[in-house]
Amino acid sequence: ITANASITANISITANASVTANISVTANISVTANISVTGGVHIHTDRLTVTSPVLMWVQALDLLLDKMKRAAFDFAGVRALSGSGQQHGSVFWRTGASETLKHLDPDHNLEQLLFSVSDSPVWMDSSSSKQCLDLEAAAGGAERLAEITGSRGYERFTGNQIAKLRQTRPDEFMDTERISLVSSFAASLFLGGYAAIDYSDGSGMNLLDIRTRNWSQICLEATAPHLDQLLGAALPSTSVLGSISSYFVHRFGFSESCRVVSFTGDNPASLAGMRLQPGDIAVSLGTSDTVFLWVQNPRPALEGHVFCSPVDQEAFMALLCFKNGSLTREHISNECAGGSWEVFSAMLRETPLGNDGNIGFYFDTMEITPPAVGIHRFDSEDSEVSSFSPQVEVRALVEGQFLSRRLHAERLGYSILPGTRVLATGGASSNKEILQVLSDVFNAPVYTIDLSDSACLGSAYRALHGLLAESGVSFLDVVKNAPEPQRTTTPHPSAKQVHTHTHIHTHTHTHTHTHTRTHTHTDTHAHRHTDTQTHTHTHTHAHRHTHTDTHRHRNKITARKVQNCHKKRKLTTRKCKISLKRSKINAETTKSP
Fold it and tell me: Which of 64, 350, 362, 427 is the 20 to 30 A CA-CA neighbour of 26?
């Protein structure tokens, strides 16, 4: 087990609320525990259920702190601490565990703790499809659930995992007195009592109403009885939960005045570590691409996620995941540039913005956003073609990827503002030509940030902010003196004319026909008739609009239809088809279909 520690130390606060801080991040301390797992998880025989042993996390923390103590780390100088945990995972505390937490013996390690479920469901789990459908039906459909909780029903989300465990392991569920997220579980260890779930990480459960910041009664009742009591009330992400447990004071030498600030999820903590500002967008260009957004007026959709902001109680963050990222770019580089990134970059430099109207969708594996697979190319006449020249292929790939990132971000409520910055991180952020395309598509300057542990750093920033938040000091004021990202590219002067305005629109229609008289209609266009034999047909349409203020480019609609075929009772995706429809519309009256 390799663990990273984020420590906030040596903070002095004067009466006028000025702050000087020396934030020390201790990273890459390797420790070994006696629990056998592969990659930190147990993958069960159904290949859908994925769990992690709770005691593994407990042992890791014990071993990490012991190693730091032997290295003479100054725990007494730590004035506040916070942290992060993988989103969506859950921990089930056994009846009586709260008393054990309060009275931990400092002469023994943390394995004194008791859990009703020894293996916790984690974010990799995808075994709760039935519970997702049940929750969406209870909420009034997938779109309505997304409007309430920020996301449609996802198998890895905590509420659906709780519902599954209650149904399949009722005895263990009945022996549970508290349910924590991984983040609030870790905070509970330091607090010596049950820590509240924070608003931001709580947004990844399909249970929290992201606008009222309260648990949704509809979602609670659809998941488990008396669930509000098991979860406890959620609190702002900036909350100071209390002083550190006496266990850590006596065992490791923490100060009794050390404060524990709400822990949050790893993605929200990364947003804090990157110090996003209103209008900013962060793009992590890794094996998969991840987009973080600061959003003021969110529009939750069936794709992507909207969470409460971890640093501003009035704002939101949006998260989009794209599976086909750097591996797809590497695949095209191998095919078109002989695996040379220098040649790949030269091809981008030598082809024009907009690629003369040629664009492609490159999904080597089943994509998350949108759910589609295959490689689909379109020329300037909107005709599907089987191939491009190597130069055109390279730009079609990169422009298509970044247009998709912008389209889906705007669909969630993101708007490009005059001061918008694009913050790029990840392996591909070292390629200036790729960043130039990113800058052109978003019509905003691109900055690079060298953060390998943004969630750790974000936790340290949040610990500092937690000490001052009640006095009204904003997060951005607290971190304003931190090192700034470096500007690497600015948009080409013609970028605004080439990539002026884009929309993507996706419809999902699900029809299930059987022989009973029960009929339910929801605003997600889902029609359900319940019986033993079920036939399901799904259509997904995506429409792209491109137009400019100068009217020098004609308006286009490109429609993509991904059709999932089925046979008898088992839904089987047999092939994906793309159909194309062209129409001319007046730029001033264009509206998204």
Answer: 427
In contact, 466 and 238? CB cutoff 8 Å: yes
CB 378 within 8 A of CB 312: no
Per-residue confidence (pLDDT) for residue 371, from 0 to 100: 86
pLDDT tens-digit readout, 184-202: 999 999 999 999 999 999 9
Q: Give the span between the Cα atoms of 327 and 542, in whole angstroms.
A: 24
Note whether 149 and 160 are within 8 A (CB): no
Beta bridge partners of 267: none
pLDDT tier, 463 (very low <50, low <70, confident <90, very high otherwise):
very high
Amino acid at position 107, single letter: D
- Name the more confident of 525 and 288: 288
What is the C-alpha separation between 81 and 263, in angstroms, rounded? Answer: 9
Q: Which two tokens stand for residue 338?
A: 């002989």
Most confident segment among 3-7, 292-296, 506-510: 292-296
User: How would DSSP label each residue in 320-352?
Assistant: EEESSSHHHHHHHHHHHHTT-HHHHHHHHHHS-
* Residue 324 neighbours by CB under 8 Å, 6+ apart: 288, 289, 362, 363, 364, 365, 367, 401
The alpha carbon torsion through 3, 268, 458, 401 (nearest 10 deg) reads 90
Q: What is the mean pLDDT of the chain?
A: 82
> What whole-number distance in Å separates Cα of residue 545 and Cα of residue 555?
7
Cross-strand bridge partners of residue 115:
93
Cis before 352? omega within 30:
no
Question: Which tokens sit at 116?
Answer: 């009703």
- C-beta separation of 292 from 271 below 8 A: yes
State which amino acid sits at residue 445.
P
Q: What is the pLDDT of residues 532-549, one digit of tens each?
A: 333 334 343 444 443 333
Instruction: Identify any residues that bridge with 51 across adjacent strands, giving them in sequence order.
Output: 42, 121
- Residue 453's pLDDT is 83
- Please count the CA atoms within 13 angstroms of the CA of 373 that sit on its side-chain side: 9
Query: Percentage of the chain with pLDDT > 90?
Result: 70
CA distance 82 to 242: 12
> Would you say how long the chain is, in residues?
593
Nearest Cα to Cα of residue 164 among 320, 270, 30, 49: 49
